[in-house]
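Progress narrative, work stream C.
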Amino acid sequence: VRIVATGSAAAALKMGSRESGAGRFSDFVLPPLTFAEYLDFSGRESLIVETADDGLARLRYDTPNIGELNAEFLNYLNYGGFPEAVIESTVRADPRRFLRQDIVDKVLQKDLPSLFGIADTQLLNRFFHVLAFNSGNEVSPESLAQTTGLKKHAISEYLEYLEAACLVRRVHRIDDTARRLQRARTFKVYLTNPSSEYYLGGLFLG
């Protein structure tokens, strides 16, 4: 018997598989839509056309309307990572409300954080804001503790949860052999979806 379970509670599934399903669960991470997938979902895939290769066995792509393609790219940055927002016109009409309900209400402010020992969801929400506005910058546990007022152990718990919930991704420094530097104390944090910036108060691109 093979059972497949899907859902938005990624952190809960990860914690449950770690505690009771070791060796019996296979996790498949489904990332946000790429721009090409967004165009396909929204029925605008004709804005990118494949042309002849350049003689070096490399495909080339063109667009019949660069203005429309740029407009769709802005839509993609604002809400295009989520299939529901792309398909449902009611969600597209108010994407910030959708992001608030799907990210904050479900992931940051309900009972899922308690699985990781996080009791204060308001602090978690504020910590996520700090990471979002420093996306791509080099940070350290010390600098985050100084900025947020949190203790280092709390920062470690928050980062672990936000990664398990597929909201952020940590990128660590590596050497010239692609091995992680063991003594490095700094790392970069990226949002897994640019649409999160829109919910967190960034300007709607247009």
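Work stream C, second folded protein:
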Amino acid sequence: MRILHIAAHMGGGIGSAYTGLGVCGQEQRVLLLEPPQDQAALDKVQFAGFQIIQGTENPCIERELEWADVVVFSWHHHPALTKFLHDFPAVPIRSILWCHVSGNYFPAISAGLLRSFDQCIFATPFSLELPQVQALGTEYLQRHCGVVYGLNDLSRFTRIKRRPHERYTIGYVGTLGFCKLNPALVDFYGAAGMSDAQFMLVGAPSTREELLLAAERRGMAGQLQFCGQLPNVEPALAQMDVFSYLLNPQHFGATENALLEAMAAGLPVVALDQCVERHMIRNGETGLLVHSPEEYGNAVRYLRENPEKASLMGAYAQADIMKRYEIEENRRRFLAACRR
């Protein structure tokens, strides 16, 4: 089977998904609509066996579309892909929409968009619960829609060994922009009441000043540790005692690789009971889901005061994630959609 992927650009998340598909035994190419943003991700995808085509000329685009048995559109509402779909050439194709956002808030998925493609792959079962998706009907969903979890190879995170560190560390890895991160993050941290703990933030520090100002008002600015964007997050995860994943209630995330990686590393996690998080975490077993700063404070204190239970919860999380997000099973689901 010849599979052509259409992507706006090459970022770390989509790069991980393509890399995970690289050994599925099919001939695959990626048509990029813009210059790649992440050279490291591009290198990994090429190493996984993909041919990369820079799609800037119509003859090139039409030739690639005619070559493909299946065309997979990696969608996260990027304007370059929207324009590409609007100006789509008159070439008949078998099409799959691979939705890399949950679709609940902006950028929202519409029933009309889904019906424009032969098949649709979601990155979370949460998307199947959306009213506009449910309105398509059970029979339509069974024939045309499926779920393929993140194709990130999580096995390396299971080998992380805890590193000694002086202060109790509550960590986060991911986007620090408030489109993804909860704007009341510092209120949650303050509710923990742990003046001797540190809060490790791994990611491009786009909201550093706002977070520091909020922390200063609470007298806890010295507890925030900004690590920046790291090429390898394993050393940071090795120094965390708890993984705290407090996202904006209207975030658009679907796969949530950072949360998967922390759980695969065996860390106990605390997250808000919302969106995709409640599909990933089994509350009270593989993590703790909370609804307010007060509940968050109770949760992290409970994990600190009960280290054996925290360790057991992390072990359950690791086992559960490695089973549910097993990469071979997700490759099989992806190829099943292509065959349909």
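The chain is about 40% helix and 20% strand. No further action is required on this item.
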